[in-house]
Amino acid sequence: MKTPEPDDKLYLHYNYIHKLCQIGAEQIRANIGKPDIIIAIGGGGFIPARILRSFLKMPNEKNIPIQAIGLSLYEDLGTGEVGTIGKEVIRTQWLDFGALATHFDTLIGKNILIVDEVDDTRTTLHYALSELEKDVREQAEKLGRTNEKTIFSIFVLINKNKPKKADLPKEMFEEGRYFAPRECEDSWVNFPWEAIDIDTVSDLKEISCDLVKLFP
Ligand code: 5GP
To answer: What is the CATH number of the domain that holds 120?
Structure first.
């Protein structure tokens, strides 16, 4: 087996991701109850969202619908480089509110969980939350339903402990609607779905189910 080159990135196992979702789901159920809908930010939020859904569902309850939105940081587009991030958020896919209303409902008055894999500069989460809030507010005004309270929460697997370039509302933290089961320093995180040689990453000794660092 090829020995990985030493680097300062964090490598996470699939099992570790799964456990972060399990911990997160317990916190979510305790703080905000069962979300009515999950909005996954693609691509990193897709796998965590799907795992979370299983942990959030109690016996005899219905599955929580998952909807996808596509957001990219501008400088990321097309480069495919790891370890760099951009600044401007580009919306590559958004909710189809017509289809949602037909097959689910409007988002007005709902308990909505936004899911991504990592909170780095917070730019993407800020964009997703403020745009979704704006859309729901406009729909509520159009339908005369502004008295209904729509609750947004956020789940990420990992929050990087660093100065952020964008904010989230402080009530989100005060009211326990921001979930990040793990914090880490400002390192680049390699998720297992990005691994080229998954056996190498999987064979790394897991340090008591904490963040796995290749060469500590
Ligand atoms: P933010 O807007 O918080 O700066 O970054 C959000 C997006 O950048 C994430 O959804 C993710 O796609 C990407 N990103 C930021 N930091 C990392 C990292 O450490 N590892 C990986 N794989 N992606 C990251």
So the answer is: 3.40.50.2020
Residue among 114, 120, 158, 159 to mutate when testing ligand 1 (max atoms within 8 A of CB): 120
* Domain membership flag for residue 214: no
Cα end-to-end distance, the chain, whole Å? 20
Report residue 72: phi and psi, to 5°: -135, 145
Residue 142 lies in a domain: yes
Residue 117 alpha carbon, nearest atom of ligand 1:
10
Residue 206 is assigned to a structural domain of this protein = no
- Asked if the structure places residue 44 within a domain, the reply is yes
Domain enclosing residue 39, as ranges: 14-181
Q: Where are the beta strands (DSSP E) in 132-206?
A: 151-160, 178-179, 182-184, 189-190
- pLDDT of 102-153, one tens digit each? 999 999 999 999 999 999 999 999 999 999 999 999 999 999 999 999 999 9
